[in-house]
Amino acid sequence: MRMGKMNQIHIKSIHFFLGFLILGLLVTIPSFGVDFFDRGMEAFMNNSPEDAVAMFEIASQQDPGNHEAYLYLGISYIQLAMYERAIEAFQSGLENTVASKDDFFYNIGLAYALSGNFELALEAYSQSHIYNSGYHQAYLNKANIYVRNGEYEDAIKNYRIYLSIMPAGEQSEAVRQMIVALEEEIADIKIKEEQERIAREEEEKQRQQELEQQRIREEEERELAAQRRRDLMSSVLDSLENDAREADQIGAESEEFEDFDFEIGRQD
Are 176 and 163 in contact (CB under 8 A)? Predict the structure, then answer.
């Protein structure tokens, strides 16, 4: 029984290895009668991104010049929220094909935006406009990012470009409402900024007035201190001069007294 179990495990291992080998052959060798791109599209349309990814991976390797295989591969990765893999697929499409570069850059921007990297998303959307200046959805997405970043004037600029390309588009009315709302928001911001500027000026004026009043008080205190010092100096000087005069008088009286004693001595 033990030997039989070991044989079963060995046979299963061989089958497992052969399964990987067959899968590797499917990826590297064209499969006759199998159109992996069509199968990928079928899975994509049936909302099965996992199966679509598997088929589009093979299709892109079988035919590197098939730009749609890379595009749908990247989009399928986006549906799976695998944004880094999506970007890699789109970049592979840019390297291997010459078609739909605007779509590749647009979808790269979309993947970056969904992953939260808005700066790189804006760069990718701008790249899409190099190859297609009328790529209206890229303008719309750029505008939405600018709104999120609080850059309302840039948002309005891109919304207006979108409307110039798609004046009657499904989202055009919502875009017009957004422009009105942003213009009102900008006006409110300017009013608030002006009020804050005036408040800052009033605060600065008040601060300068307080500083001037403090300067005047300090100057008055210095003058009072100087006057008290001068009064003290005058008082001390008067006292010293009085003491000096009294000392002179005492000295003079002492001399007269000595002279008197001398005269008395001579009479004796």
Answer: yes
Instruction: Report the C-alpha gap between 118 and 114 in whole angstroms.
Output: 8
Helix axes 67-79, 49-62, angle to 10 degrees: 160
- For residue 31, the SS3 value is coil
Tell if the pTM clears 0.70, that is, is over it: no
Please count the other Cβ atoms lying within 10 Å of the Cβ belonging to residue 220.
10
CA distances 160 to 97, 127, 166, 207, Å, are: 32, 19, 10, 46
34-83: pLDDT as tens digits: 699 999 999 999 999 999 999 999 999 999 999 999 999 999 999 999 99
Cα distances (angstroms) measured from residue 241 to each of 27, 35, 141, 235, 238 = 120, 125, 95, 10, 5
Contact 108, 90 (CB under 8 A): yes
In the numeric block, the tokens 């064209």 are attached to 30
pLDDT (tens digit, 9 = 90+) per residue, 80-107?
A: 999 999 999 999 999 998 899 999 999 9
| Phi, psi angles (nearest 5°) of residue 166 | -125, 65
- Distance, CA of 9 to CA of 34 (rounded, Å): 33
Residue type, 78: I
